[in-house]
Amino acid sequence: MKLQGLLDQLLKSQSGGSLLNADFGKGAVTGGALGLLLGKNRKTRKLATYGGLAAIGVMAYQAWRDHQQTSSTTTPEPATVDRLPPPQAEAHSQAIFSALIGAAKADGHIDANERQLIEGEFRRLGQGDDVDRWLKAELEKPLDPAEVARAASSPAVASEMYLASVLVADDQNFMERSYLDELARQLRIEPGLKAELERQVAARDDA
User: What pTM value is reported for the model?
Assistant: First the structure.
C-alpha cells in the first residue's frame, strides 16, 4: 500500500502547489473534503510549502537535535522520513497518515457525511482497493490514542506522528489538547522533546 506520494499530494493540494510524485498524480484533489482531514489552516499550508512529507521529517529531526543540546541524556540519531529510501519511508508514511486521521477525529467532528466526502476524494485518486479499505477502517474505528501510537515502530516515527498531529489539531481546544497530551504519553515522548516538537510547529506557523 503506497501512501508516501499520496500524503505529499494531499499536503500540496492544501496550498495549490504541484504534485511531488508523478506516480500519484492521477488528478488534483479539490474541494473541502480533504480540508476536513488535514485542516485548512496556516500550519498545513505552510507544511505543504516547506515540502510536504519531507518537512515532517526535517522538523522532527531538528526538534531532536535542539532537544539534545539541553538534555542530560543522549539518544541515537533518529532516521526520519526525509533521510530514508522509499521502501522505509513508506512505513513512516502510513504511521504519519494514521496520526493525521486520529488528530482530525480528536474534536469528534468527522461524522458519517464527512467520512463519505473524504472517502470519495480518495477514490478519485485511484489508489486502489487496499488504500480505500485502509482509509475506511481508519476513519470508522473509535479514536484511541493507544491504538494510534501502536503504529510507531521507532522513536523517529513516534516524533513524526506527534508532530503531524500537532499540525492538524487545535491545541487551544480542550478535547484536542487532551488528545495530544495522551498521544504523546502513549508514544513515550519525553516532555522536553514534546515541547521541542511543538516549538517547531509554532516556529513554522509564525514564519
Answer: 0.81
H/E element holding 185?
helix 174-186
Question: What's the helix, strand, coil split of the chain in %, to 5?
Answer: 70, 0, 30
- Work out the angle between the directed axes of helices 155-168 and 191-206 (0-180°, nearest 10): 40
Per-residue pLDDT tens, the chain, 207 aa: give them: 556 566 666 665 544 443 233 232 233 333 455 566 666 555 666 565 556 778 889 999 999 999 999 888 888 899 998 888 877 888 888 898 889 889 888 887 777 777 777 777 677 666 667 777 888 888 888 899 999 999 999 999 999 999 989 988 888 889 999 999 999 999 999 999 999 999 998 887 666
How far is it, in rounded angstroms, from Cα 180 to Cα 166? 7
DSSP label of 23: G
Q: Which residue has the cell 491504538?
A: 147
User: DSSP 3-state assignment of 190?
Assistant: coil
